[in-house]
Amino acid sequence: MQFWPAPRGCAVTEIIKYPQKKVLHIFLAGGDMDQILDMDSSAVEFAKMNGCTGMSIAGRRGWKRVLKNKGYEETFTVLGKDI
Description:
Blueprint (H helix, E strand, L loop, with lengths): L1 E5 L2 E9 L4 E10 L1 H6 L1 H10 L4 E4 L4 H6 L16
Parallel strand pairs: 3-4
Antiparallel strand pairs: 1-2, 2-3
């Protein structure tokens, strides 16, 4: 896992190796939205340097709208329930 600290936010990523693809997965991000969005280009560069051919992010549905201009598309939905 990788920790991405910044002055007004941070993120945590992991490299996931699938049988035919390697992906940098962003599963935690917080802070000022502008700061988080500015971190995308560095994350993409890091992913490419590590042989990744894709990026993924898990989070609230609102990320879909925010990250649309960065080229992200919804690829799956995560469901949960309280017990």
